[in-house]
Amino acid sequence: MDKDKVAVLGGGATGHAAAADLTIRGFTVNLYELPQFAAGIKGTMEAGEIEVTGAINGVAKINMITTDIKEAIKGVKTIFVMAQSNGDAAFAEACAPYVEDGQIIVLCSGNCGSLVFANIFKDKGVKKDVLLAETVAPPYGCRIKEPTHPGGPPHIRITLLIPGFAVGVFPAKRTDEVVSQVDKFYPGVTGRTNALEAGLANANSMIHCFPVLLNVGCIENSDSFIIYAQGFSRSVVRAIIAHNKEKARIFGALGWETPPTPDNIDGLMGMFQKMFHDPSEFGPLGPISEDRFITEDVPYGLVIYSSFGKMVGVETPTIDAAIQLASVINGVDYRAEGRTATKLGVADMSIAQLNKFLYDGER
Question: Which of 85, 237, 252, 347 has its CA 20 to 30 A from that of 13?
Fold first, then answer.
């Protein structure tokens, strides 16, 4: 098995960014997309290469671009899932028949998707020794842009390299194995307590949901509303702080380290300004009914927190209000649609049982 060869699953902006970045840095990369989304990767397959600009610059000739999962992951030690969380089950179903002993599957970022993979692999009778992991955040902030010249390869603008790449592993007792391998591709990786701690530490719902929901009128009445430039105010940040406090209480109840987030308005505003020093790079939002800041970060972010809050007896009124508001605005029952402790198969566990399960992988 080739330890320096990777498969990147997901043909969106982040998948393209990872495939290009890792290729430019000398690794052999297979880029895979689910067959039902093949149209989205057709141009990349035809070009055979990807151009990246911004934080990373270059044109990468990709080793393999395919919709054949068997070929994509064959003999590959490390598999990165760089896709939205609503695709986790489909990627797990695709991988299940073809995974090999010794492989590591890393969801970037996971939103607790490692247990989705674990449950599907169990249901499919997968007996291979495969480690599952997920990250606190994806490695890149990026967007698909028009080719830099007519007829050129697909163009990805990498606006941000996400610092503090942290990974949680299932089972957690094998964290060191995963950190050692992933560090080859993203140096400076650190390990979290377990996979769910990493998944629940994802900051996207904090950064995305409240600025969108509390500015929905401006967003819908403008073709150029830029969330990171115009979406934050002291009032919006107050809602974010309330969200963070509810999340921290959930972590405390579970016995996990609380994510380090400023709990005052000036501190949080300063953090956002530092992270998004050129907010215009991120461009305007799409329709609220389609934008992943709501369609992913509510059902696979806020709903998870609300669910685990109920599981451990922590009230989450601010988070629950945001779920309700998003559901009404988009006409979607995100609570019913979203990822929960019940769907992950852990709702009936005590806190001690949950932590033991996450550590050793045995129910």
Answer: 237
Please, are residues 153 and 47 in contact by the beta-carbon 8 Å criterion? Answer: yes
What is the mean pLDDT of each successive set of 10 residues along the chain, which is 363 residues long? 88 95 96 94 94 95 97 97 94 98 94 96 96 93 87 89 86 97 94 94 89 92 83 92 94 87 81 72 71 91 97 97 96 96 96 97 86
Do 270 and 346 belong to one domain? yes
Sequence-separated (6 or more) residues with CB below 8 Å from residue 192: 136, 166, 167, 168, 175, 198, 201
pLDDT of residue 287: 77
Q: Domain range spanning residue 306? A: 204-360
Q: Tell me, yes or no, if the pTM score tops 0.85.
A: yes
Q: 18-56 burial, b for 16+ CB within 10 Å, e for fewer?
A: bbbbbbbeebebbbbbbeeeeeebeebbebebbbbebbb
CA 184, CA 60: separation in Å to the nearest integer? 19
Q: Tokens representing 181?
A: 């391998």
Query: Looking at this protein, which amino acid is placed at residue 200?
Result: L
Q: How far is CA 64 from the centre of its chain?
A: 23
Q: Is the peptide bond before 109 cis (omega within 30 degrees of 0)?
A: yes
Are residues 76 and 47 part of one domain? Answer: yes
Query: In 3-state terms, what secondary structure has residue 215?
Result: coil
**pLDDT at residue 280, rounded to an integer:** 66
Same domain, 96 and 240: no
Exposed, middle or buried by CB within 10 Å (0-12, 13-18, 19+), for 257?
A: exposed
In 136-204, the DSSP E strands lie at 140-145, 155-161, 166-170, 190-191
Q: Which of 189, 169, 187, 159 is nearest to 278 (CA)?
A: 159
Kind of pairing, strands 28-32 and 49-54? Answer: unpaired
For residues 99 and 176, membership in a common domain is answered with yes
